[in-house]
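User: Structure please.
Assistant: Input sequence and predicted structure:
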Amino acid sequence: MPAVYLGKVNLHWCSECNLPLVEKGNCSICGVEGERVKITPPGDVRPAFNTDIELIKDTIDKQWGEGYSEYVIPDGKIVLLNSSPDVDRMDEVIIDGKVRGILRYSMDRKLDSREPFVFLIRPWDNLPAPEKRFVVMDKGAVKPILNGASALVPGILDGDEDTCSAVQS
């Protein structure tokens, strides 16, 4: 695994224009100060090209239901990828100024979730529940999960049958 570089990462995001900024400061379009995007060092960020976006959408649809990717990445949405250290290749998927998921390149091309991508859908994200591979958590579980805790069975309110039976066994 490559070493993690602990230097300065300068990716920022204008929340008003929903655009990436390559350095700290104000957006040149609206003047709003950009917010720092929390990404894994060394911060090797690039735009996601059409083939990248199609791969991500295909993976999302296979994991959470056909057409679900259209909610996560609607047409015209800016998507960035941050190359992150891993045994093989791994990219953080950045949408709306936040890491919404991690795409690990492996034989099964699995998309791992990070808050608030798919495992934790917040009401203000306006995303419907996926068709499969989801759980609905008690509101009291949200803060511990955001702080890195795992989901415990008593906090699960609902979910698809396969996922809930796997979690409870």
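The radius of gyration is 17 Å.
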